[in-house]
Design goal:
The strands form two sheets. Strands 2, 4, 5, 6, 9, 10 and 11 form a seven-stranded mixed sheet that branches. With 119 residues, this protein is mostly beta strands.
């Protein structure tokens, strides 16, 4: 199985940028489909973005489309989330996740990294 560790969160003003990283260890990273999710206080966890094994296809929630970019470097066992034009409503704990296929549930999760956007 794979272990995931997020980093790169922090406090940023509205309109600013952050880049999150998700470092994988254990089983070969390129085996997994991966994605980012977030959970704001008092809300359910929601999908943010996903990327297929090769990195050739990406998916985004409507709320982040055009502002966030997901990518991965399989040689570095790392996935990224570049977040631009951040809004206060982007404030949440961001989690990276992995699954065995696009038909499977996300079974592997990181511990999360806090992103806070001030107005």
């Amino acid at each position: 199985q794979v272990q995931l560790v997020e980093s790169g969160g922090g406090l940023v003003q509205a309109g600013g940028s952050l880049r999150l990283s998700c470092q994988a260890s254990g089983r070969t990273f390129s085996y997994y489909e991966t994605g980012w999710f977030r959970q704001a206080p008092g809300k359910e966890r929601e999908f943010v973005a996903a990327i297929i094994r090769s990195g050739g296809t990406t998916y985004y929630a409507d709320s982040v489309k055009g502002r966030f970019t997901i990518s991965r470097d399989n040689a570095k066992n790392t996935m990224y989330l570049q977040m631009n034009s951040l809004k206060p409503e982007d404030t949440a704990v961001y989690y990276c996740a992995a699954r065995n296929s696009d038909h499977a549930n996300y079974a592997y999760w990181g511990q999360g990294t806090q992103v806070t956007v001030s107005s």
